[in-house]
Amino acid sequence: MTPSDPRPNAPGTAKDQQAPPGNEKWTSERVLDPALFARMANEFFTASPDIARAGARNQPAAMPEIAIAPAGAPAAAAPPGVRSGPFPTEDDLRALPTALASLFGSPLGFDAASNPTPWIPAIPGEFAQLASVMSPSFSFLNEARPIFGRLSSAATTLSEPPVSLKEFDKNSAAHGTPNVAPDISHPASIEAPQIPGVPFRPEAVERAAGFGFLGEARQLLPSDVPETLGRKDLPADRLPDFDLSSRSFDVNEIRRDFPILQERVNGRPLIWFDNAATTQKPQAVIDRLDHFYAHENSNIHRAAHELAARATDAYEAAREKVRRFLNASTTREIVFVRGATEGINLVAQSWGRQHIRKDDEIVITWLEHHANIVPWQMLCAEKGARLRVAPVDDSGQILLDEYTKLIGPRTRLVSIAHVSNALGTVPPVKEMIEIAHRHDAKVLLDGAQAVSHMPVDVQLLDCDFYVLSGHKVFAPTGIGAVYGKLDILEHTQPWQGGGSMIVDVTFEKTVYNVPPGRFEAGTGSIADAVGLGAAIDYVQRLGLASIARYEHDLLLYATQALLKIPGLRIIGTAKEKASVLSFVLDGFRTEDIGTALDREGIAVRAGHHCAQPIHRRFGLESTVRASLALYNTCEEVDALVAALWNLKQGHRPGL
């Protein structure tokens, strides 16, 4: 039996359950047809833009108990004003608020006349744990609850919650959360986390209090879209790419998405701290590759059969996902390559050969991976240009004043790491780009180590080129992408020749394709591009802002723990850094440390990490690098620290 709500005149009490005028038999105690009710509610919430304009401001306190008709019983009559039939009409939908009010004993607060603008809920980009049930009448919509913010302590305590909320209340109590009901008469009491870069709209919080669970079905309007623009009139390309995570960040749940993390190495659970070399793959990516080869495998763009269409659609959909991921302005700015290394070589051999002349200068930094050094050395040797290098301080951060002095009228290109693979340093790239642009130099960012750790917006950064590797962001190996500003790509000659990159070929001349096809000669890694799209989907479901916060906290925890080990020195201590911990331990060779940790099932990288110059800046030839990712945990850090302590004290790990 459902306990009664202790509040006077609460919905569900005898006084409140009075039949609406003209239909005395219609009460919540009457036998209803659940299918009719569900169909009407779904149509009401999704089908009518006119009704969807208004946000509900009054929330029913509890769901009235509805008796279900026994098998074979005739369907109940429709609510007053709503005709029966297989599909509700627009008039039916307009009448539904009154019908629902008769069931719940509370008006739903629709007033289209006073609220003519389309109602689109504000969806926060980061989710707080729910302190109470905001919509007890719709408590079955569990997946929707995270879009509500944490409720204020001013809410009224319920002495005995309805039965439908008992399980939730047990979970809340287990997490130390008070069992409270929201005071929705004061929308300001709701704390709504905000999407970075999106202005806070208090009125959106008020509206979200009514039907906030519709968040997964709608997007926030861009700031330049007129208020009168209806939902069905909004072009797909005008929708912003906000970080709309659909679940809270639960590292234990995330770890279950990665089957290889269940592997055992040397009899121990695998601890993967080699993420800067490559990341592991979630089941969603593995399944997407399997589906492609089972149902879509074909070459693309050059056939009229069904599988070619499927493969082409999947490939180009992946390009669109990369575009959104980087916030490029068009898919024509996204070129698929094998990885960041090939991307840098593409820019060097196409744009570089075309624009670098004798005595021109290319500027890089001490932080660079060999892939961002050697191609420019080769180009400078070919063209008679000069390679200049910006120094770093003892923490591993760029000396910005010295960098500024290097940029001058002969500077044609600046190529810098967005995140250092050896130290984890995050240089002040936006400021460095601005300095380079003052002298009309182009800027390439090597984003291989950045894209899995932080949001990237190439338009905000204003870089001219951006390269990434898929396998560093939970995608397959052998796939990556180059972003290039469209006006630059359109005036850049191709690097490789072959199929797909042409429009017309004769023995006298070749007409090249437009970007990005111009730079994608031959058959690319089609399935892996599709896998990259699946990996981007996975990361964006978690939310890069949430990932960055979690990894930052884990990095701090690991740093503090490692520094307690006598004789251990962390190389790279810049204030701004990502999830990389490179270190040396007095009395031990780095390769011996790596071997000892492997006996414990702990995978780290021991060596120069394809970044010899920055190691030599610190007087070293190699370090041990533990690099973190979204699936690593404090317990794994503890295991690493314990193994290093044992090694330091003379105990051989694993024995």
Descriptive notes:
The protein has helices spanning 34-46, 49-52, 90-104, 166-174, 202-211, 251-255, 283-295, 306-326, 340-355, 374-383, 400-406, 429-438, 458-461, 486-489, 526-542, 544-562, 590-599, 612-617, 634-648; strands spanning 150-151, 156-157, 180-181, 190-191, 264-265, 268-269, 271-272, 334-337, 361-365, 386-390, 411-417, 442-446, 465-469, 480-484, 502-505, 510-512, 568-571, 580-585, 602-603, 605-607, 623-627. The protein is an alpha/beta fold and 655 residues long. The chain has a seven-stranded mixed β-sheet, with helices on both faces. A four-stranded antiparallel β-sheet has the order 17-18-21-20, covered by helices on one side. Strands 1-4 form a two-stranded antiparallel ribbon. Helix 10 links the parallel strand 9 (361-365) and strand 10 (386-390).
Class by SSE composition = alpha/beta
Task: Indicate the radius of gyration in whole angstroms.
Answer: 30 Å
Q: Which parts are unreliable, with pLDDT below 50 for 5 consecutive residues or more?
A: 1-32, 47-76, 78-86, 104-246
Mind summarizing the main beta sheet?
7 strands, mixed
**Helix-residue proportion:** 25-40%
Intertermini distance = 61 Å
Beta-strand share of residues: 5-15%
